[in-house]
Amino acid sequence: MAYSDFSLETQRFNDREDNAISTIYGCVTTGEDWQFLQLAGDRVLVDERRDYINEIEKVLGIFQSIIDNSFNIIQI
Questions:
Q1: Which positions of the chain have pLDDT values less than 70?
Q2: What is the pTM of this model?
Q3: Please, what is the Cα angle at 21 between 17 and 27, to 5 degrees?
């Protein structure tokens, strides 16, 4: 699925389910390399870097950042 398809289908799903979600995070992985993306409104932001499993602390840090950011949005 292309990133634009991801954006469109995610928006359709949220509209259909009446979900007011402003930001959605995604991750594509082969298990060895990881790439992260973010859907904010109608924009898909793709992190052009690839992170690798041998840098597991960095990958886990990215996931923690996503969780922290999501938690902060929920608390507001």
A1: 1-4, 6-7, 72-76
A2: 0.71
A3: 105
